[in-house]
Design a protein that fits this description.
Elements: H1 20-34, H2 36-44, E1 49-53, H3 65-83, E2 87-89, E3 93-94, H4 99-109, H5 118-142, E4 153-154, H6 158-173, E5 178-187, E6 192-194, E7 199-217, E8 231-237, E9 248-251, E10 256-262, E11 265-270, H7 274-280, E12 287-293, E13 301-303, E14 310-315, E15 327-330, H8 336-344, H9 371-385, E16 388-401, E17 409-418, H10 425-435, E18 437-439, H11 443-453, E19 457-458, E20 460-461, E21 472-474, H12 484-497, H13 500-504, E22 524-526, E23 530-531, H14 533-538, H15 540-545, E24 555-561, H16 568-580, E25 585-591, E26 594-595, H17 612-618, H18 621-630, E27 637-638, H19 641-663, H20 670-673, H21 682-703, H22 707-736, H23 742-762, H24 767-776, H25 802-827, E28 837-842, H26 845-856, H27 860-864, E29 868-872, E30 882-883, E31 891-896, E32 900-901, E33 908-909, H28 922-932
Parallel strand pairs: 1-2, 1-24, 3-4, 8-11, 9-14, 18-25, 24-25, 26-27, 28-29
Antiparallel strand pairs: 5-6, 5-17, 7-8, 7-13, 7-16, 9-15, 10-11, 10-12, 13-14, 17-19, 20-23, 21-22, 28-31, 30-31, 32-33
Helix pairs in contact: 3-18, 4-5, 6-12, 10-11, 10-16, 17-18, 18-19, 18-22, 19-22, 21-22, 21-23, 22-23, 23-24
The structure holds one RNA strand of 74 nucleotides.
RNA sequence: GGGCCUAUAGCUCAGUUGGUCAGAGCGCACGCCUGAUAAGCGUGAGGUCGGUAGUUCAAAUCUACCUAGGCCCA
């Protein structure tokens, strides 16, 4: 007789091989046809809200690993909250305006660009953005992310553009928008401002000059013994043409400054640089005097070398000792750092250069000259005046216009600003930062110091693709229009016609009929600049959270990469504090950047870029999701083929565990076959208790956004608790007991609860596989159609007495020690399979009482998976005894199991067999008979 | 150059307020099984905690510096 036929071996169609690459699109299709996300939304109605707000990626190019990481994490959160019983919606968004798209469109048009009007270019930009929104949308969907993909928010939607205008008008009405000057890159040939991205760096020959500024006042003998009437501060510059705009000399507060005395004059320079300068200037008889620190010199006032103007000595941390003299010529109208330090000292952002790069008439000596052409004249004049110490030339990297390739200049131009320190704006923003939960906590420090130190927010850009700064100014009295009615009128026009309207209409057409300025004039000038795109995305909280019944303001969570402390978190905070006096979020979570296997950033030039599309095609999106869950994303997270290979193996192990559960549940109907927990075999009860612990740990980790805790806990549970311990022990019972026996049904009930609960627990992470498992689950006819529509298992009823839990823990530990003893005999070829063995134990007293109890029920041998266990008082007389290191007082001896091997259950038996089944043990005979009955 | 952050076995992670020989799983090696089978089980070998110098009776855990790396600025 073939006794194998009488066993209940696993049967299932659930494939061992996942074939994710082919399977996932099918699951996606099923989700779409059944509108699972829509069903979740419907089911959520009336539940407490969890408001997650999606930050908009830029609608340009295909998604990269950073996008994938970000959206998958968001999906984890939303799916978790949803299964936990919250109304959690995911409205995805895209950032559509801005320079990169305008550039791409310009590139495609090439030279024809000149023939296109602003409106036509804007139209092309809109089409371009729409195209990439669609592309990225499909790529995001492929990751298995559940979201309102058919109702996203786009910053170029008319309604969104109207929100931008409405929000900005709030700043205008509060008087929180002012026009000021700020240096920008400026091409004098194209007569246009350039963004950083439009600047190319190339080598260029410039003059290199040292100029002395005589001390006028404030000298208090900081450096001993100098004659202040003959003391000078020496600056170095490569742009002599910026000297007419010099307003200060900047020193580093912590550097030491000394004076070089030469022919009766004293020249103040940084001490560290003095020897080098002596050499460079070839001064034979000069001497270096004493020293003082930079901060001692603050307040000294010098005289401009050729203009009747004072130039005070100020302090700034940006001063370096790499080049020059440590005394920096400061022209706030011609340099970024000069501008910032100038603001601190209340200096004018003075710019005496016009659009064409020509000195304005106000400039003494050089009016009407093109700036770089004036360089030699300026040098010559100073030479003649005796204020020049040395002049030469340098070859250095210098910014050029990307279009005409001519050298560009830095030049202050009129820009619009939101002031940081008016009406306590900055202080309020800082206070709101402190009210927000930052995860990880150091996010607070990061954004706090940024907001604390940032200059006023420059919100204007001289570009085409964006939302206009809707400022109208009276032609006659130059008064800004701030009327709320006018603002509302403009918002309405934008809502109906889009922001293009502003550019297409005359100023007067943008106003309500008959509107006049308080001065009586009806003629206005409209602003042509557009808004910084950070303002666009900064109002998303207003556009998306408010007015949507699925949402509420503020959001519970913003979740983006750590670059957004400077970006979206920052602009959203300022916008929201400016208009609502509160942060738009309660919690802000950041993740690190995706780097390669060695921790280096991915770049085209390094050739180490891994594209998500490739991973999906090779491994499947599920592996990508598992990768996100496996790594601690708070730091930079690595990806490599080795890592993916490991994850694929881990995935296979998890999958096989489910396949085994499913295989052993093929004849199980939870409705009719389930055994109540208190009637279960103790080990079945125990494993459910273990699962309860894992579930609690995982759900807490999900709530704390610690997804890698899920990965490790869940995976370890599959391997250690299930595969190596419980399921290995359970096989004997499931296979050999009659189908409908309580013993077998008890084990099946535990396996069913595990199957169902584990599928739910992993659903936010392994969304595809959990769904696949769900469709194979016994009793699925009584379940919701998708695992994602279910709620996490409630295991609160699975209680287990502490003393039993500790007993099973000890049994588990003991099983490990038995394995060690068995392994020794296995190496000696005494045994092969563990069932070939009889194990004799000498036990410490505490263990002994526990084991004897277990032995009475004859369960020990099944736990150890050996054919016989004997408890001895002493193993002293035996040889080859294994002495445990882990458990004091434990000794184990291993012997060949006596009797013969049961052909059916493979356990050795010593009792007399029955005539009908001569090669089968009595337990099996009993089971065979009751199975027949 | 500045701000914030990171650095534990080949890989991914644990290591509570500094205090028993630094842990897990995978991978690897060796072996078993052939009734989860392109599966399953067992045993074993791998780190002195990026480096240096300190604080301390005692440091992976605190401090400083250095190195490598990341984000944001300049």
């Amino acid at each position: 007789m073939d006794y194998k036929e009488t066993l209940n071996l696993p049967v299932t169609d659930f494939p061992m091989k996942a074939n994710l690459v082919h399977k996932e699109p099918e699951v996606l299709k099923q989700w779409e046809t059944e509108d699972i996300y829509g069903q979740i939304r419907k089911e959520s109605a009336g539940k407490p809200k969890y408001v997650f707000h999606d930050g908009p990626p830029y609608a340009n190019g295909h998604i990269h690993m950073g996008h994938a990481l970000n959206k998958i994490l968001k999906d984890f959160v939303v799916k978790f909250q949803s299964m936990k019983g919250f109304d959690a919606t995911f409205v995805p968004g895209w950032d559509c305006h801005g320079l990169p798209i305008e550039h791409q469109v310009g590139k495609e048009l090439k030279k024809k660009k000149q023939d296109f009007s602003k409106s036509e270019i804007r139209k092309l930009c809109r089409e371009y953005a729409a195209k990439f929104v669609d592309i990225q949308k499909e790529e995001f969907k492929r990751l298995g992310v559940f979201a309102s993909w058919d109702k996203p928010y786009l910053t170029m939607d008319y309604s969104y553009e109207a929100t931008i205008v409405r929000e900005f008008s709030k700043f205008i009405q509060k008087g929180m928008v002012y026009k000021g000057l700020k240096p920008v890159h400026w091409c004098t040939t194209c007569r246009t401002a350039l963004a950083e991205a439009e600047v190319e760096y190339d080598n260029h020959k410039s003059p290199s000059i040292y100029v002395k500024f005589p001390v006028k006042s404030g000298w208090n003998n900081q450096i001993q013994g100098l004659d202040d009437s003959k003391t000078y501060f020496v600056i170095w510059t490569t742009t002599p043409w910026t000297l007419p705009a010099n307003l200060a000399i900047c020193l580093h507060p912590d550097f030491e400054y000394t004076a070089i005395t030469h022919k009766g004059e004293s020249w103040v320079v940084a001490k560290e640089l003095a020897p080098g300068l002596l050499e460079e200037w070839d001064l034979q008889d000069a001497k270096i005097q004493g020293a003082c620190s930079g901060k001692d010199l603050e307040g000294v006032v010098c005289q401009h070398p050729f203009i009747d103007r004072e130039s005070p000595v100020i302090l700034g941390d940006h001063v370096t000792l790499e080049q020059g003299t440590g005394c920096v010529h400061t022209a706030p109208g011609h340099g970024q750092e000069d501008y910032i330090v100038g603001q601190k000292y209340g200096l004018d952002t003075y710019n005496p250069v016009d659009d064409a790069g020509v000195f304005k008439p106000i400039v003494e000596h050089f009016a009407g000259q093109f700036v770089t052409k004036a360089n030699p004249d300026i040098i010559e004049k100073m030479q003649a005046d005796g204020t020049l110490i040395a002049a030469s030339e340098v070859d250095h990297s210098y910014p050029h216009c990307w279009r005409c390739h001519q050298p560009i200049i830095f030049r202050a131009t009129a820009q619009w600003f939101i002031p940081m320190d008016k009406d306590g704006f900055r202080a309020k923003a800082l206070a709101e930062i402190n009210k927000t939960r930052w995860v990880p906590h150091w996010g607070r420090e990061r954004i706090y110091s940024m907001v604390e130190n940032r200059p006023d927010w420059c919100v204007s850009r001289q570009r085409a693709w964006g939302v206009p700064i809707t400022v109208l100014t009276c032609k006659k009295c130059e008064e800004q229009v701030t009327s709320p009615d006018v603002m509302a009128h403009i918002v309405k026009l934008v809502e109906q016609n889009g922001a293009d309207f502003w550019f297409e209409k005359e100023a007067e057409e943008l106003l309500p009929g008959g509107y006049k300025c308080s001065c009586g004039s009806a003629e206005f000038v409209k602003e042509m600049d557009i808004l910084d795109v950070w303002f666009d995305s900064g109002v998303s909280h207003a556009a998306v959270l408010e007015g949507n019944p699925d949402m509420q303001w503020p959001a519970d969570l913003y979740l983006e990469g750590s670059d957004q402390h400077r970006g979206w978190f920052h602009s959203s905070l300022l916008e929201s504090v400016g208009t609502r006096s509160a942060a738009p979020y309660k919690t802000v979570l950041t993740h690190g950047y995706v780097v390669d296997g060695k921790g280096k950033k991915m770049s085209k030039s390094a050739g180490n870029v891994i594209a998500p599309q490739k991973i999906i095609d090779q491994y499947g999106a599920e592996i990508l999701r598992l990768w996100v869950a496996s790594e601690n994303y708070r730091e930079d997270i690595r990806i490599s083929h080795e890592i993916l290979k490991r994850l694929t193996e881990a995935y296979r192990k998890i999958r096989n565990t489910f396949r085994f559960l499913l295989g052993n549940l093929s004849d199980f109907d939870p409705k009719t076959d389930a055994v109540p927990v208190d009637e279960m075999e103790e080990i079945d009860h125990y494993i459910l208790y273990r699962f309860r612990l894992v579930t609690e740990r995982v759900l807490k980790a999900f709530g704390d956004f610690e997804f890698h805790v899920f990965y490790h806990s869940f995976y370890n549970f599959c391997i250690v608790d299930l595969s190596a311990f419980y399921l290995d022990i359970l096989k004997d019972r499931i296979y050999t007991y009659p189908k409908n026996s309580r013993e077998r049904r008890s084990g099946q009930t535990a396996m069913y609860d595990l199957l169902r609960g584990m599928a739910q627990l992993m659903a936010p992470i392994l969304s595809f596989t959990s769904e696949e498992i769900w469709s194979y689950m016994p009793g699925r006819g009584n379940e919701v159609s998708s695992v994602h529509l279910s709620s996490f298992p409630d295991l609160s009823k699975v209680s287990f007495p502490d003393h039993l839990a500790s007993k099973w823990e000890k049994l588990g530990q003991l099983k490990g020690e038995v394995s060690k003893a068995l392994e020794l005999r296995r190496q000696e070829k005494m045994i092969g399979h563990s069932l070939d063995a009889l194990v004799r134990l000498e036990l410490p007293s505490d263990l002994k009482s526990i084991l004897e109890e277990e032995q009475k029920r004859d369960q020990l041998k099944y736990i150890f998976i050996v054919s016989a266990v004997e408890i001895a008082d002493s193993l002293e007389k035996e040889s080859n005894v294994y002495t445990s290191e882990a458990i004091a007082g434990l000794k184990i001896s291993v012997h060949p199991a006596p009797g013969s091997k049961c052909e059916r259950c493979w356990n050795y038996f010593v009792e007399e067999a029955t005539p009908e089944h001569p090669s089968v043990c009595l337990r099996c005979v009993k089971n065979l008979e009751s199975a027949k009955a």
